[in-house]
Records
---
Amino acid sequence: MKVVLIRHTSVDVPPGTCYGWSDVPVRDTFVEEAEETRLSLLKYGSFDHVFSSPLTRARLLAAYCLPGVRPTLDERLKEMNMGDWEMKPYDEIDDPHLQEWFDDYMHLPTTNGESFPLIYQRVAAFLDELRQKPYQQVAVFAHGGVLICAGIYAGLFAADEHAFEHTTPYGGFIEIEL
């Protein structure tokens, strides 16, 4: 099965803001960005099924790119939960754990949030379940962290400190085979 994972468009939060599970708004450039994504997805034709993170930034892009299609919303497709740090500027987070997390973000959780292994576990569970379905081609509208996890799951790159170098641009996508 071919799975096309699409990252949401850019968001309207100040640069350097820590967000993950927060339901942040899209930028005022949404239509231009979404149109570029929609045109890029035309090469795939139709999809047997469409899934989306329940967060607005992913659902809006799904609705724009595939009008009339109602994606199945799945909580496992949400971005990493940044816990107590959600919606705070990184340089204003007063938490002694912050530097420890920066030094080992591939293993440690954020304060009262998730670790990378936890987000990977939920994305892998989604993909394991999807693998059992009879679909030929599926679209998944989600987030940068989810796409990194899917890339690792599919063997596109390693689960190491360099994994985030493979962050898909806003409105971009990756393709994996299950």
Note: The chain is about 30% helix and 15% strand.
---
Amino acid sequence: MSDIVDNAGKMSVPLVSVCVPVYNVQDFIEECAESLFGARMADKCEFIFVDDCGNDSSVDKLKSVIGRHDGIDAKIIRHEKNQGLAGARNTGIKNARGLYIAHADSDDSVRPDFIETLYNTAVSTNADLVICEAGQYITDTDAEAFIRDERLKELVLRAQKDGNGFTSGENERIGMIRLLLQHQIPASIWCKFARRSLYEDNKIDWKNGINVGEDVITSVKLLFHSKKTVVIPNELYNYRKFIGFVMKLRRGTFFRQKELEFTEIRKFAGEKGFYDKISDVIELRNAEIKYEFLKNESPLSLRKYDFMRGQKLRVLCEARSDFNKKSTRALVRLIDKNHFFLANMMYFSYRILSSLRKKQVAR
């Protein structure tokens, strides 16, 4: 694909728009911006930083980095008031002019070939969507063991090997969505490189107010509408496991946000007529979130175990060492044998003993 230039020989339309939300990341924003501006093909990109009204020195530091790179097309768009992560991402894509759109989080960084590899792959394969891997990306191996679909995994491996990706076949697109919901391919938006027209033609944006799991919703929509998706094994993005906004949410708030995420995915899948093909994966993920919410309760919680058993999650919980205590295993055996009266007696006895121990410690 040839560059688009104006009469003066300068690029009138950037090849790639890189969108970056910025909120209270003063310790990381300089490293992030330097990695983006130093990446190959950075001179053919525009970089859109969305200032979501943080209260630290992030923007001042960002301006300093931009000032050191005269040849870079970078701009900062400031919200009048905080709109959250979803709102910041929407502002980025609404102001993008590039033929393709990439994303980065402001506490992460990218590899030098991040832009170049994704762009060249998209052009050479005529893909609407390219998905890469990230360094330090954590996969949920327990969930994979529980619901792994080896046929779909093999499909990904073949697509990576021959470079042809996935075509517009509905079964393949739904298969990709299943893999994403199983976390067998990255769900985060910063691993997705897409034509801008894919967003615009299908009116894909982020749901305002959903700031946890918002990437998953958007990724499902991109995968569904993409006529050709290519998955490459290259680790092009440096993910930082950072205790930031999402991790600091109260458990109740986090749980409500995840409920909104799953509600939105169900709604979209229902409207497009493929909910029945992914309902088992969605419900498993939804159940896992609910279990995590209950997890901080007493390990002997009957309510937690009953929920877990009903959602077929026992194998996950055992793999995560939640059933190491002898008393817990004894309780589980009683429940499995339908000795509910004895189980309840044991449970309430345990709760009384725990309460007495806490009082003794407090003294």
Note: The first helix runs from residue 29 to 37.
